[in-house]
Fold each of these.
Amino acid sequence: VRGYRGSAGCGFAGMAVCGGELPNGVKEWRPSVGHSAPIVGLAALVASASAGTAVGMAFVSNLAGTVVFGVVAIGIPLSVWAYFRNAKIVITRDWIEKYDLLGRATRSPRAQVAQIDTRYVPQPALCFVTSEGKVLIRVNQRLWTDQQVSEISAELLSGVHVQDRGVSGGVIVALDIQSF
């Protein structure tokens, strides 16, 4: 996986943000920075407000306030950068893996996925669910484009009979596993 940069024109600060197939057949998707512009903008706004507040706290000799707001002003941009650098979904022949902002993987056997469900609490999410109803992997849909979500769903469900329950947005939300 190391060294892969995705499709041409998909990079942001040296990061792959589009889906693609690696030479060994492993498929990888990264969140789209452009699609996440409102979240990135909000993080930049909060970070700059925190930096301004930290400077103001320093002028009134409030050391605790300066430290707290300084940490927030530095931590938010670092967290956003780490998320777009490390977050990805990888699907192999046998596994589905989701990497978080720290690069930690949540790994589940691909064969256990019996259903893909869209849930809206606390925010829109695409959930890969077992036949018993256990959520294996949850993906925040606000950070991924509709095309990426559709590609991930299609790749995960290849070779499986799909029953669409008619939910809008082009996302496959339920399936009935049967052999062809």
Note: The two ends are 32 Å apart (CA to CA).
Amino acid sequence: YDAVDEKWQDLLESLERQDALLRKELRNLKFEDQANKYSTWATETVEAVKSVQHPEDENQLESIVEIFESQREDAEYRRSQYEFLIAEAAEIGDEAKAQELKGINAELEEIIAEKKELYADARDYFKFTNAGDGELVWINKADEQWQTLSALKLDSIPEAEKALAEQKGKQTSLIINNF
């Protein structure tokens, strides 16, 4: 009877070891699957963000920024997944996969920071150029008015005084609007 009991205990221990090995293998496979999906997503996102052409105008910039913000928010949302995978890699001892994940995540964070700054600079640029375009239109209009005044043939002192007053008023307006 002791031999049967001993064999039974050996069988139970063997089953427990097999169960533990299967659980470990399942955990490793799940980790590998999640890590590969994250790597694929991160790589595709990096490529998508990199491939965007520089905007040619403010409307195109706003469309690009809207897509970029969605990508940036998705990356932020997936940050907890990344952190979980790094912790899981350490726990199961997969240093190679941890380094791969860290590398692609660093590239993702770098391109997001770079594009965020680029788009902020582009916004400033378009605001400046649009403001400059408005100023240029105003200056051209003022120049046109001065050309009209200078083309006047003044026949009397009152006309000359009136033209001089208008000229001074426009100069004052120009100076005030420029500051």
Note: The chain has a mean pLDDT of 85.
Amino acid sequence: HRLARTFVRRATRAMEDTTDDAARDWAYLTTGLYAAGRGQWEEAEFRLKRAVELAERLGNWRRWHESSGLMATIYTMMGRWEAAKLVTDQLYEKALRHDDMQGQAVPHLAVGRLKLRQGHFEEGVVLIAIALPPFEQIYDRVQMTNGRGLAAALYARMGAWEHGQRHAEQAPRLMAQTSP
């Protein structure tokens, strides 16, 4: 983690020294992701909010989508259900406006994760079933793996072991195809 912490310090200094909003947006996104990975939720939230704001100002839909999706995940992990739902609703609305199939699927996956954490397993399964086909159509292996793992967890919590096992068996195969 020492090298990563050095990157965060340098990226933060660089953000203060530059007027290049695209560079600042990228730095906020990557350092926010690092903070989330360390479980530093408030720091991640601060950095990702800045990334969302900058991406919005720049009109960078892809970066806005990535940053907002991470915000929804962080709010879910923090147990801030209403904030997570608000962000996923915004993601879905904007994806519809941009006719972005992947962007429409990501909120279903995020809310499915939220339903797992809330104990609403049946609702989560329905959302994952909606989310997976677009990922399969565009062959997004990372999201497919994420969705299959989430579906396996939801089915297991419901006691539907056969369905859960079927999803669980697909996740490692997808991971092997994604890894170098």
Note: The chain is about 90% helix and 0% strand.
